[in-house]
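Here is one such protein, fold included:

. . .
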Amino acid sequence: MPFLPGQSGNPAGRKKGVRTRKAALIESLFESEVEAVGKKTLELALGGDTAALKIVVDRLCPAPRGRRIQFRIPSITGAHDVVRALNAVMRAVGNGVLTIDEGAALSAVIETSARAVEFADLADRVQALENRL
């Protein structure tokens, strides 16, 4: 019998956020040495070790995970609005206002909105049918 969404196969299992014994042990081993490891890594990086240099640069200037964008998605209240919103995103990507990844993320938001509009429309139609009966 399959599990229902959100239902654990082991309700008494490990709770979210609780570390395993292995993770806690590893953390405790390095806890007192964090500063020394950091200094040594910086020393190696300054000495020309490219792997250490990459570690230092990744910590100082991490790759951006996203940026705040100035793009207004047209409001979506019906199916025709979905097409209009997707066209606006495609134009913005084509003009370089949005990156391809940003366009894809916004398209996913629009798709979710489209499903919500479709669901609301179906609910209204079912209610209208029930009122006729």
